[in-house]
Amino acid sequence: MISFQNVSKVYNDRSVALENINFSVKPNEFISLVGRNGAGKSTIIKLLIGEDRPTKGRIVFGPYEVNKLSPKDLSMLRRQIGIVFQDFRLLPMKNTYENIAFALEVEGRPQSEINQYVPQVLDMVGLSHRAYNFPHELSGGEKQRAAIARAMIHRPAVIVADEPTGNLDPINTAEILKLLLKINELGTTVILVTHNKDIVNSIERRVISLDNGKIIRDEEKGKYILA
Fold first, then answer.
1. Contact 91, 146 (CB under 8 A)
2. Which helix (H) or strand (E) holds 200?
3. What number is the average pLDDT over the span 108-117?
4. What order do you get walking across the sheet with 2-12 strand by strand?
5. What's the pLDDT score for residue 20?
6. DSSP letter assigned to residue 153
């Protein structure tokens, strides 16, 4: 499904972000991507969504070779990848329903689809009762669930969750993790980028550990072990 093949990213002589990265992701996997700041996690995500290009190597996502896509094809690829950020990135002047619907509106999707899909994802993340509340009226956990709903509205093959619990308390962290596991169980591949050792060590799923731009461990049912 996803394959990084001998991928390196060099910004200049003093900044090697990734060095000879090789890994594959199977459909419906749940993977934690871990490592200290500057280890290369964010660079991998940028390369996966085509926001940046590798210095060498190939990145394959299904039928696409990501680093060779035209802007039009890159747009099609990105519809297959939902991204959830630490800081939510909700539009403050739109309510929960409108924030989620907006992701379809910018593509020119018909109103009938919007009316059908938005309530479905709101129900999936447990926010039907908050559909008409604005971001400032939501708790941190509710904001993140709204962000996950927005990421899921395209029914992507992959969800990339980039530090999704970084701004949350332990209770909301547990709820977001439970939701990501539910999404995975429903058939969506999940790539979790996190510093949270407790999360990684509790779920007993695959862990890819990075350090200084290199993969130092890739373990099934792995642990977050600092190098």
1. no
2. helix 197-203
3. 92
4. 15-25, 2-12, 56-61, 64-65
5. 95
6. T
3-class state of residue 215 by DSSP = strand
Predicted confidence band at 227 (pLDDT cuts at 50, 70, 90)?
low
- pLDDT given at position 19: 94
Question: The pTM is what?
Answer: 0.93
- CA-angle at 147, arms to 119 and 4, nearest 5°: 115
Q: Would you state the pLDDT for residue 226? A: 64
Task: Find the largest Cα–Cα distance for the chain.
Answer: 53
* Residue 192 pLDDT level (bands cut at 50, 70, 90): very high
CA 97 to chain centroid, in Å, comes to 21
Amino acid at 70: S
The span from the CA of 210 to the CA of 34, in Å, is 6
Hey, what amino acid is at 50? G
One-letter amino acid for residue 217 of the chain: R
Q: List the end-to-end C-alpha distance of the chain, in Å, as a whole number.
A: 29
Structure tokens at 158: 């992959």
pLDDT tens digit sequence for 11-49: 877 788 999 999 999 999 999 999 988 889 999 999 999
Which tokens go with 176? 């977001």
Domains located in the chain, CATH noted = 2-219 (3.40.50.300)
SS3 171: helix
Q: How far apart are CA 10 and CA 43, in angstroms?
A: 11
